[in-house]
Design a protein that fits this description.
By secondary structure, the protein is mainly beta. It has one domain. It has a two-stranded antiparallel sheet with strand order 1-4. A hairpin with a 2-residue loop joins strand 2 and strand 3. The radius of gyration is 15 Å and the shape is elongated. The N and C termini lie far apart (31 Å).
Length: 71
């Protein structure tokens, strides 16, 4: 059986803030074939809310935007 591998596509800062501590639990993973079409990724983490504060959103994780070229 051929080995399979996933590659991390994005780089960048924290994707969530917990009790004042920046964390990176979120990752964008792709197969080698899909990664070949990856052009750029962006972690949209401006004004990231602390998930322990009152009134924090249900999912305070920063979105990860990815662009692929299929042409």
């Amino acid at each position: 059986m051929r080995a399979r591998r996933l590659l991390a596509l994005e780089r960048g800062g924290p994707s969530t803030l917990h009790a004042g501590r920046s964390m990176r639990p979120d990752h964008l993973l792709a197969s080698i074939g899909l990664a070949a079409h990856h052009r750029r990724s962006e972690l949209v983490n401006q004004n990231l809310p602390d998930d322990t504060e009152a009134g924090a959103p249900d999912s305070p994780h920063a979105p990860i935007l990815a662009e692929f070229d299929w042409g």
